[in-house]
Predict the 3D structure of the following.
Amino acid sequence: MWRRVLVMSAMAVWCAATIATAQNSAVHAPAPGGSSSRNAPAAAPAGQEQLLKSAEAFVRTLFAWGPDFNLHLGPLAQAAAPDFYRIPVEVTYKGQSDHGEIFVSKDGKTMLRGEMFDMGTDPFADNRSKLHVTGNPSTGPDDASVTIVEFSDFECPHCLEFHRAFSAIQAKFPAIKLVYKDFPLTTVHPWAETAAIGARCAFQQSPAAFWKMHDSLFDNQNAITPQNVSEKLTGFATDEGLNADAFKACLSSADAPKAVEANRADGLALGVNSTPTVYVNGRPVVGGDPNAVAQYIEYEMAAHSKP
């Protein structure tokens, strides 16, 4: 699974955490009337500025992030647990950035790293509210009890692996619905965004043609380059009987790029930072592991079949 930040093992460890772990070492308690911080909200209550500074100092020590690592913490927000704040963290090193979050107790003595849930709510409802599937390519019944939303990149080799594996999943679970959302990783995949725009242009002419374009892009991934991607897209469009002039006009218009960018914005709002990232009724599967996807589908289908 590719991650944007691979330059230091400490950053890779930060990105990979999925289970909350308590850090017993104390963050120094906030001092009332602390000096202002660029990381604190403009109208932060007394002491929160110092809490952010103390949290940043502890995180730097924990991950060995020296002065070459640019950190931004905040703003503070109430966590699911009443005695904790949720603090977004952005770390940048040599032009590469990643995001995460920590939880710090209001007394400044404990930091948690991972996820915190309110056990009285649906843990995936917020994800589903941010997925915005309307207007995106989909396959499968509209009334499916299980909807798979895939954030993908046509140049991503792991997305190609998921594309191939998903055929078996669809064959096993024909009643599921798949929704495709663009998330081209432009910093490492130079032709991915152009391909996403081309596939969106195919979708605008014919929803069925999108899936044929989708398959052609993945099946020919090794033959596509930044230099020939436009030519390849036009060839795929012609092969599928699309209007070539309309397709070329779409490639240079603003509509298709806006749709791709809207999907990317949805992904960022969900915290997506690698592809493929798959959601099964809102349950995230980072990396698109087929076994995990199948497990979640079985669970969701069983849950929806109960009286």
In short: The radius of gyration is 22 Å. DSSP finds ten helices and eleven strands in the chain.
